[in-house]
Each structure stands twice: as C-alpha cells, then as structure tokens.
Amino acid sequence: MSLQSIGPVLLVGAGKMGGAMLEGWIDRGLPAEQICVLEPNAAAELRATASGQGLRLNPEKPNAPPPKVVVLAVKPQVMDDVLQDVVRYVPEDAVVLSIAAGKTIANIAAHLPKGQPIIRTIPNTPAAIGRGITVCVANGVVSDEQREAAGELLSACGEVAWIEDEGLMDAVTAVSGSGPAYVFLLAESLADAGVAAGLSPELARRLALATVSGAGELLRASGLEPDVLRKNVTSPGGTTEAALKVLMAPGAIPDLMREGVAAATRRGKELAD
Ligand SMILES: NC(=O)C1=CN([C@@H]2O[C@H](COP(=O)(O)OP(=O)(O)OC[C@H]3O[C@@H](n4cnc5c(N)ncnc54)[C@H](O)[C@@H]3O)[C@@H](O)[C@H]2O)C=CC1
Ligand SMILES: O=C(O)[C@@H]1CCC=N1
After folding, report:
1. How far is CA 146 from CA 20, 116, 154, 197, 215, in A?
2. What is the pLDDT of residues 28-81, one digit of tens each?
3. Where would I find the Pyrroline-5-carboxylate reductase dimerisation domain in this sequence (predicted)?
4. What homologous superfamily is domain 3-168 in, according to CATH?
5. Which of 58, 68, 62, 59 minimizes the C-alpha distance to 30?
6. Ligand 1 pocket test: which of 36, 41, 74, 120 has the largest number of ligand atoms within 8 Å of its C-beta?
C-alpha cells in the first residue's frame, strides 16, 4: 500500500501535534485533496493549504467521501465531547486512530459503535519534518489492511513501532511523546548557562542550538550508542569530565530524568478519566 492509496483521511484537530502530522503527510506526498480537517481555530497556514492545495477544511459534509482513516488529535480533556459530535462522520469500516495522551482504547470505544477498529498511538512533534516516532497499539478488530494503512500514514511522519501491551502507552508517552520538550529544555538551559559563564545571549544561543542539533544528528548518523559518543567527548582529566561529575551526580540529570518520566507516566494515567 502507498500513501496515495490509503483513501480519504479525516483529521479532527490540527493544533501543534495534528498540524505537525499534517505537514509530514503533505510533504511526503499524501494528496491534500484526500484530506479533510475539522479545526475550529484554523491557523493561517492551514487555511492557505486549504485554498491553495485543495485540502477540505471544515466542510459541511466531512464524510463525503467517507473517510478510511479518522485521526483524533484533540486534547484528552475534550476528547469525550468531540467524539460524541464526530461519531456521525465515522463509517463502520474506518479505522479510528487516536493520538491523545492517556486516553485508552476503552475510553475511545465507549463513544463509537461496537466493533469499531481503533488504534491508540503516541506520535511526537518531529513528525513535522518526517523525523518523529509513533508508537501504536491496536484493538482486536483492526484488520491487516487497516494496520497497513495506519502504518503508511504514520511512517510519513517518521519511524513507527507497534506494541501489544496498551499498559505501556503512558510510559511511551512520557519518553517519546513528551521527550522533545526535554531536549529543547536542554538547549535552553545550555544557552542560559553560557550567558551565566560570560557569553553574550546571541553567541550562547547559537552555540547551544548548533550543539544540541549537531549532537542529535551525530547520534543518528553514526549509529553509535549515546554513552559511546559521550565518552568520545570526555578526555580524562579534562573539561567535560569536570562538568559530568556535576551533571551525573546523585540527584542530578539521570535521577531527575527518571523522576520526570515517572511524573509524566502518572499524569498519563490520570488523563484517562
Ligand atoms: N503536542 C505534542 O507534542 C503531542 C501531543 N499529543 C496529543 O495530541 C493531542 C493534541 O495535542 P496538541 O496538538 O498539543 O494540542 P493543541 O491544543 O495544539 O491542538 C488541539 C486542537 O484541537 C482543536 N479542537 C478543539 N475542539 C475541537 C473540535 N470540536 N473539533 C476539532 N478540533 C478541535 C483545537 O482548536 C486545537 O487546535 C492531545 O491529545 C495530546 O495528548 C500526543 C503526542 C505529542
Ligand atoms: O504534554 C502532553 O500532554 C502531550 C502528550 C505528549 C506531549 N504532549
């Protein structure tokens, strides 16, 4: 199956994450005319894509033609209300793909006809440049063809991983869904630390951004493990070792990361309600 042969896609919510996925789909060749978007607060860019490329934005009949894949990309807190409204646009043979943190397959299924194929996923924002990763778990009625269609759509946004145990999704969300924010925080903190060490804000920002993006690119392109790359920077008795003694001390980055991921995982479980 190709991206072009998936059939009509209905995207409900084109905010930061739904919008990033939409960008990934269009950049990688999903025909815009095949996409219908329901978004009450459409950004100017989305409106331009609608008028320039034929994407259907908030049409009167979102289910004409009937969607093959319905992507739910609204906040978990409004998911129940939104589903009650959009259920009328969901054909029984469409696969419903939720990207909401915390919301379980059972939460989604409660608003849909019995036997609706549902895939719960967690993408991340690098999807916008085709460099995201999406983790998926399907309910028992998703067909091989629907799994393939969802995989095709999601791989336009980067890597795709399938898991069998839905209980792991909150931990997945805490690692890869929220993870880009941790990396951006690292870039912000590194720039701030450069200013504190005497650099101008402009130079500190430039150094921090080039370093974080360059290190990420090196991690990907080299295929080496992060600890090997870290050790390659660390000369015995040198400057990096001095910094890492602080950053890796008890209670510092490794411990804080574990606590942060545990907090995000707990929050995911709360969002199910
Ligand atoms: N932002 C991220 O990095 C990630 C977000 N997610 C999940 O993606 C979902 C969306 O999150 P964001 O994009 O960050 O939030 P957002 O607030 O940027 O986007 C949600 C969009 O839904 C729209 N919306 C509200 N009511 C609607 C309705 N009745 N019909 C259609 N659209 C409606 C809003 O106008 C908004 O643009 C959440 O469930 C979140 O858990 C998952 C992984 C990563
Ligand atoms: O912060 C959130 O709840 C969403 C889910 C993962 C990333 N953003």
Report:
1. 22, 12, 12, 54, 37
2. 999 999 999 999 999 999 999 999 999 999 999 999 999 999 999 999 999 999
3. 166-271
4. NAD(P)-binding Rossmann-like Domain (3.40.50.720)
5. 68
6. 74
pTM score above 0.90: yes
Ligand nearest to the CA of 102: 1
The residue nearest atom 23 of ligand 1, judged by CA position, is: 13
Fold of 179-271: ProC C-terminal domain-like fold (1.10.3730)
Q: What is the interface pTM, i.e. ipTM, of the complex?
A: 0.99
CA dihedral for 35, 40, 41, 47, sign (positive or negative): positive
Of 63, 62, 20, the closest CA to residue 45 belongs to 20
Residue whose structure tokens are 């209300």: 81
Q: State the Cα–Cα distance between residues 3 and 155, nearest whole angstrom.
A: 9
Q: How far out from the chain centre does Cα 265 lie?
A: 16
Q: How much of the chain, in percent, has pLDDT values that exceed 90?
A: 97
Give the integer Cα–Cα distance in Å for 145 and 254: 41
Q: Where in the chain are the domains?
A: 3-168, 179-271
Cβ neighbors of 111 (< 8 A, separation 6 or more) are 80, 83, 84, 87
